[in-house]
Amino acid sequence: MTTTTSRQGSAAAEGIALQEVATVLQTGNLVFSADTTPDALEQRLEKACAGALGHTTEVLVRTAAEWSDIVDANPSPREAGSDPSHLLVMVMKREPLEDGVKALQAHPGPERIEARGRQLYIVYPQGIGRSKLNGAPGWNKLGCRGTGRNWNTVLKLAALSA
């Protein structure tokens, strides 16, 4: 099973004949089976979204094994257990640039950020909506885009992908 994160992914998936396609609540995620590489799937889905919607969007694909690794690599197990809605995993298109990660880590505030491969793990102890980290200049220094999912959604994606 493979998972994609894209708001427009469902319509695009229909056009490229993915198998066992399921949407995951209102998360913008799809879980599906496919017989090709994640990179090739990203390209196919991005092209299908552009054709169906008339504009480009980035699609991020992770395999079942990668979702399992994302769960295992969590640097904040305490928060995952006690306050999972305030633990966010930002799935990135590529590994973020170190300068951007350091800039975000240096931002004043209670948030904690850890980079692990193509993911950022962010703890928002006072909630995401009130955080000043969201407008911090470090985001534009990461060198790639990503999409965030709270820990409950990450666990659901990992379970459905397995």
Give your account of this protein's structure:
The structure is a single chain. This protein has 162 residues and is of the alpha+beta class. It folds into two domains: 65 residues, no CATH class; 77 residues, no CATH class. 36% of the residues lie in helices and 25% in strands. The chain is built from six helices and eight strands; from the N terminus they run βαββαβααβαβββα. The termini are close together.
How is the topology of this model organized?
Layout: E1 2-5, H1 9-15, E2 19-24, E3 29-33, H2 38-53, E4 60-63, H3 64-72, H4 77-82, E5 87-92, H5 98-106, E6 112-116, E7 119-123, E8 146-150, H6 151-161
Antiparallel strand pairs: 1-3, 1-4, 2-3, 5-7, 5-8, 6-7
Q: From the structure provided, what is the oligomeric state, counting identical versus distinct chains?
A: single chain
Order of helices and strands: EHEEHEHHEHEEEH
How many structural domains can be distinguished in the coordinates?
2
- Mean pLDDT across residues: 86
The biggest beta sheet, please?
4 strands, antiparallel
Q: Rg from C-alpha positions?
A: 16 Å
Structural shape: globular
Structural class: alpha+beta
Strand content: 15-25%
Q: Got a strand count?
A: 8
Number of helices: 6
Distance from N terminus to C terminus (CA atoms, Å) equals 7 Å
| Unreliable segments of 5+ consecutive residues | 1-9
Bin the helical content: 25-40%
Strand order, biggest sheet? 2-3-1-4
